[in-house]
Sequence to fold (209 residues):
Amino acid sequence: MNQENKPSVTVFAPATVANVACGFDVIGLALESTGDEMDIRLSDTPGVRITSIEGAKLPLEASQNVAGVALQALLQEYGKPEVGMEIAIRKNIHPGSGIGSSAASAAGAVAGGNMLLNHHFSNEALIRFAMEGERLACGTPHADNVAPAILGGFTLVRSYQPLDVIALHTPADLWVTVIHPQIEVRTADAREILKQQVMLKDAIRQWGT
Fold:
């Protein structure tokens, strides 16, 4: 079969807002109007190949790209080394913008890849694969952005070991306004300066908001 005639899908990977209120690393929500677009195609060449990236200067090498790493995790668990996939990425979410750029790439890649595999994996498995992209991006495999990117709406990570994610009720008339200061802050840098302990009185105040 000609490579261009291989099965393919186009996915929209939404931007996300995480760390909502007291939900650091556990509560996030997906935005409806902003997101990346990705074309994913089955390939005769085993493994993952990123063919193009528009809108951002990011690595084409799959092992250095969050979308590539997430999709590699999916294919590794799929267990058929002869299967290959190609990804073309159109980045509409600027890296470092604070609305889940890396999560969109990782979540979109595994969601599209799973479609090409006839929905072989559960949503929980897709979140787990996408978390590997977040591990590459910031050193920590957190799910507060990738979970809503995959499930939509609000999500809550009830546990990481084992992974337990649920969808929360999202009011149909809820509107979110995102104001961006036009500065770039890498998630890895932001996490590096966070304190590892929070005083109880501060935590209680935050939980109550």
Notes: The mean pLDDT is 91. The helical segments are 66-78, 101-116, 123-138, 146-151, 187-192, 200-207.
